[in-house]
Every structure is written in structure tokens, then in C-alpha cells.
Amino acid sequence: MTTQTLMKMLTLRKLFQLFVAGTLTCLVGLAPAQPTWPSKPVRIVVPYGPGSSPDVIARIVADKLSQRLGQAVIIENRPGAGGNTGSGVVAKSAGDGYTFLISTNGPLVYNTVIYKKLSYDPFTELKPVILAGGQANVCAVRADSGITSLAGLIDAMKKNPGKFNFSSTGVGSLSQLGVELLKVKTDTFAVHIPYASSPLAITAILQGDVQFACVPAVAVIPQVKAGKMRALAVSTAKRSQLTPDIPTMKEAGLPEIESTAWMALMAPASTPQDIVLRMNQEINAILALPDVKDKLHAQYMEPLGGSVEDLQKFMQQELRTMTPIIRRIGLTME
Questions:
Q1: Which is nearest to 312 in space by CA: 251, 265, 278?
Q2: How far is CA 282 from the centre of its chain?
Q3: Does residue 99 come out as left (phi exceeding 0), alpha (psi in the -120 to 50 range) or beta?
Q4: Would you state the CATH architecture of domain 42-134+262-329?
Q5: How far is it, in rounded angstroms, from Cα 286 to Cα 291?
Q6: Separation between Cα atoms, residue 264 and residue 149, nearest integer Å
Q7: How confident is the model at residue 333 (pLDDT cuts 50, 70, 90)?
Q8: In Å, how far are 49, 77, 138, 295 from 300, measured between CA atoms?
Q9: In the structure, what pLDDT confidence band is assigned to residue 35 with cuts at 50, 70 and 90?
Q10: Architecture of the structural domain at 137-234
């Protein structure tokens, strides 16, 4: 074999290799890309019943979120144990980006102080995503109770010891702690009856099972407008723009009782940070939409938003603020 013939064979072989490489490159370019998040429906667990505040805001956000993610966003109600059941389910779930939690003050902060043995740790087993919304708790009684003010409620409890019960959205919830603090500050007594959601807590008042409650406005105001209940005070430091006619606790003579019911989106701790940041970005954008604001305002909720770090700092501040209050009233659960 001559040198010239060998060179021709090597040239043909090189050309064939280049052809094969080019063909494979084209085929790779035509092949479908690897699936990216989300490639299937996303689940948001609500640890309270249907109609509760976190359930309402979850469904308002989910409608827009599914459009932005290109996947269905499924709301799953897992009520029980004052929100601990559903919150614990998510804390123990795989951090694959397909399970999230929208929970409240109690399961995310207060219960770590109240319960001697909590089945999960929201500060280590859950990852902050975004502070979604907040609202005032409204203290209310049945319209035919004869009580027309917060001072009147306190006076009635003092004159009728042992005859008052109050409902809440669960053990350790702000709707319980606010009343427990009120009892301490006014030297009154009432038995706590927890329920799985604010609508159920209100139903208990209407049925006469309890005499009052301090629960989210979304459950109270419709009954006030219907003439079935009377609002006595809001729990926030200032009057809410959404309920401007209802006085604050301070205006009613209790300046040390101020609180806001809030709802936050969380993820299992092992969820990739890029997915957490994507969810934060999308929900921030959703909360800024005029129609979403209108829907939330119609439910007496204020959209909040902010960064992942904002929520992390907020939860730590809530823990520092409420721990001495919980200790002071001696609230402890097994």
C-alpha cells in the first residue's frame, strides 16, 4: 500500500468521523430536553379546614400560580391538632419541589413553645418561602347576646364566672392566645373550645355552644353584616382599612393586646433553593396583581409578600415576641 493510498484512506476515515459527530449533534439537538420543574402538579397542603383563612388565600393564589407554572396546583386540606397535623405532614415530605405548606402563626412558631413534644420542628424541617398575607382578628359575640362592647364582654365574664366559653381556630393559634392574654390582663375566666377552622369557630357562637371568639375577620364580618353577630374590637395596633368601623383593643382599653394573624408558604427543608426562589418570585408577582388584591381585600386580608429572608426574620421575631407571653399565661400542651 502506497503512502498516497494510505493518506486517502485516513482522510476518508476523518471525514466519516466528522459526519457521524455532526449527525449525532443534530440528533441531540432534536431530542426532547430533560424535564424541568415543575413537570407535574404541585400540591399545597392547608393544615386547616375548607373556608379557613389559609385555605382562602391558598385558593386565590393557586388559581394564578397554576397559569404561571404551567401545571395544576392542588390544594389539600389536612386539618387536625390545631394545624400541627398538616404542617407535620409537609415537614416530613420529600423536598422534591412538589409539596408546599401554607400555615399560620401557631403551627409555624407558637406551638414550638406551647407543646412539650411537637412531632416536627418548623425552624429546621421547613424552609421559608414567602409571607403571603395577614389580617386582623376580630372579637365578636352573637348579636342577641346583649353585649355591645369589649368592656361589656369583660364585665359580663366577671359577673358570671364559669359561664363563658370561647372558640378558636385551634390550640396554640393566635385566636386562642389573644383571648388567653385578654383573660390575664382583665382577670377573667372563660373555657377554651378549639375548632378546625374559623367558620366552625363562628358556627359555635351562632349555635350557642360558646359565647365569643377572636378570629379572622373573613369569618366574622359576613355574619356581622347579616345581623347575626356583633364585632367588638380588632386585634391590630391600628384600625384596619378593611374594617374601619371596628375599634382596636387599645381603643377599648387594652393597650397591651396587639396581634396580627398571618399566613406563610413553607417547603420541606430539603427543597432545592432555586425552586424556593422561583415560588417566591411567582407569588410576589401574583400578590401584586390588582385582581388578586381585590379578591384578598374582599376576604379582609392584606397581601404581604417579600423575600425568603424577610419571612425567616419575621418568624424569629414572632418567636421572641410571643414566647414570654405564652410562658406568662402558662399555656402548655403535651
A1: 265
A2: 16
A3: beta
A4: 3-Layer(aba) Sandwich (3.40)
A5: 9
A6: 32
A7: confident
A8: 18, 21, 11, 9
A9: low
A10: 3-Layer(aba) Sandwich (3.40)
